[in-house]
Design goal:
This protein is of the alpha/beta class. The chain has two domains: 3-289, Vaccinia Virus protein VP39 (Rossmann fold, 3-Layer(aba) Sandwich), CATH 3.40.50.150; 293-332, no CATH class. The protein is 39% helix and 21% strand. It has eleven helices and eleven strands. The chain has helices at residues 3-16, 21-36, 50-78, 95-103, 116-125, 138-141, 158-167, 190-203, 215-230, 260-265, 328-332, and strands at residues 85-89, 108-113, 132-135, 176-182, 204-212, 234-237, 252-257, 272-283, 292-294, 304-311, 316-322. Strands 1, 2, 3, 4, 5, 6, 7 and 8 form an eight-stranded mixed β-sheet that branches. The protein has a three-stranded antiparallel β-sheet with strand order 9-10-11. Strand 10 and strand 11 form a beta hairpin. Helix 2 packs across helix 3 (50-78), helix 3 runs parallel beside helix 4 and helix 3 (50-78) crosses helix 5. It starts with a helix and ends in a 9-residue tail after the last helix. GO terms for molecular function: iron-sulfur cluster binding; metal ion binding; methyltransferase activity; structural constituent of ribosome. This is Ribosomal protein RSM22 (Predicted rRNA methylase). Keywords: Iron, Iron-sulfur, Metal-binding, Methyltransferase, Ribonucleoprotein, Ribosomal protein, Transferase, Transit peptide.
Length: 341
Amino acid sequence: MSSVDTQLHAALARALDGVPHHELRRRVDALSHRYRTEQVDDTAPAVRDHLDALAYAVIRMPATFRALYAALSAAERHVDAPFTTHLDLGGGTGAAAWAAESLWPHITTEILERQPAAIHLGQQLATGNRWHWTAADLHHWSKLPDPDRSTPDPCEPAESIRSARSAWSARSARSVDLITIGYVLNELSADTRRLVIHAATRSAKTIVLVEPGTPNGHRRTLDARDLLLDHGFRIAAPCPHEGRCPTDWCNFAARLPRTELHRVLKDGTRNYEEERFSYVVATRAPVRPAPARVIRRPARPKGRVMLELCTSAGTAQQIIVPKSDDAYRAARSTNWGDAWT
């Protein structure tokens, strides 16, 4: 368990002090049902009060942190630019901020979140950190006018525009190095997704987007990737190319430790879990793309390693590295999601 994992679990444990576990379990079950049946969208938020926020944080925040950390690590490796300012859209209880600060300790982070309960818990968990929290609805934030356009959209209520403008008044005056959109698109309508991504392209030099590693999550990630390319961004990771995806379903995995309470609430027996996720890193900065990416868990039968790759030519390819090959040792240490040269 990393030091940041330890700090996050300790912060969650403090927040849970005195909370009846049977009531927390009921909220966890209800939240899981709402997500499984896709009852979470623009008008039906997942987190409705403090106990919902606690249930969500305990069951999802460590996994969300691990997935975002993996995607941001890819941005660090493949984007040739510094990251000093960060805006997290729909940041919930702050998992992306934890991930960004673990990589760049001096980064300045602002978190946009619409649910007061999530903001309150996120601030409680982040005691001692310098993050700024802003209450804002992404739908309204995405409707803020371009910096060179003073007239707002006549179809958008003036009060909502004023509210979003006051929530982040500096938005039209500056951009940030990095925007994260983590596990957010699955909670938005298709129209709002497009609006949010369009607004993000006007506000950031690099965008890191993470979605659940399901077939639907993969499709949402590809749709976002297409929009980012249309806006002139380059793809830094995970794809080593900017063409069509050669697979039907691309996802990656991050392993994380489970606490005893986590195991109880999720009816789990193992002391770890794997979080499956899809992601894309897009940027206007110079990129250092991988020659190829390992897109499945490597198979290691005796005397050889089998790697499934996505290549810079835009194709999916399997290679077999025998023990006699000079690359065998590198292949043995290569993991799912790694670059392959």
